[in-house]
């Protein structure tokens, strides 16, 4: 999986990462650390700000990144 770029849509990138991880049969225990190594900018800063324990669990990592990038239901309401 290529590293995220600043031009990538973070939500689409995370979706592509999940699909790639499933297709390659990456053990879910490694998803969080793999995603953390691939993201850039605010997403990367968010990953590194997590506690070591939270950084090991993919769902809290994903939620934290999307939250800090303000990709949530309110984001979609504003865009609509």
Indicate the percent of residues in helices.
Answer: 55-70%
What Rg is obtained from the alpha carbons, in whole angstroms? 12 Å
Rounded mean pLDDT is 89
DSSP strand content: under 5%
Q: How far apart are the termini?
A: 31 Å
Number of domains: 1
Largest sheet: none
CA-based shape: globular
Number of helices: 5
What is the string of SSEs from the N terminus onward?
HHHHH
Number of strands: 0
Oligomer kind = single chain
As residue ranges, the low-confidence spans are none
Assign the structural class, choosing from mainly alpha, mainly beta, alpha/beta, alpha+beta, or little secondary structure. mainly alpha
Which secondary structure elements does this structure contain, and how are they paired or packed?
Layout: H1 10-23, H2 31-38, H3 41-49, H4 58-68, H5 73-79
Structural description of this entry:
α2 (31-38) runs parallel beside α4 and α3 packs across α4. This protein has 80 residues and is an all-alpha fold. It has one domain (10-79). It contains 5 helices and no strands. The protein is 61% helix and 0% strand.
Question: What characteristics describe this protein?
Answer:
80 residues; mainly alpha; 5 helices; 61% helix
